[in-house]
Specification:
By secondary structure, the chain is of the alpha+beta class. The chain has helices spanning 2-24, 47-53, and strands at residues 32-36, 39-45, 66-71, 85-88, 91-101, 104-111. It has two helices and six strands; from the N terminus they run αββαββββ. The N and C termini lie far apart (62 Å).
């Protein structure tokens, strides 16, 4: 009986997390619109880290390594693997890490810098 209750609790938690994604991925609160691999998506950019690293230029574009959080459902069909090239807002990046967590994917992106 305990295993059945645990499974039901896990399903309820998973469903609640999916329902709560709309709270965070909301352009009135945390989310901002960006182009990720050719798709216009509502994502969350780790802006605190970006501010600390001075990664935004005067036009609001990111120009350094960033962490992006996206809904897993929005990324369906994209090849997202470490060392894979990806375009984020018309800038070339390489995926350093992909971390899926409960319907969200954390992407650590390293900008490709010309020499």
């Amino acid at each position: 009986m305990g295993a059945v209750c645990q499974r039901v609790d896990d399903m309820a938690l998973s469903e609640q997390i999916q329902n709560d994604l709309g709270i965070f991925f909301n352009d009135a609160d945390f989310g901002t619109w960006h182009t990720v691999a050719g798709r216009r998506l509502l994502v969350i950019v780790d802006t605190e880290q970006a501010k600390q690293d001075g990664l935004k230029d005067l036009n609001g574009n990111y120009n350094g390594d960033i962490t992006v959080f996206a809904k897993q459902a929005d990324l369906q069909g994209l090849r997202l693997e470490p060392e894979q090239a990806i375009i984020f807002d018309n800038a070339q990046y390489v995926i350093a890490n992909v971390n899926p967590i409960d319907g969200i994917v954390e992407l650590n992106l390293q900008q490709v810098r010309s020499r």
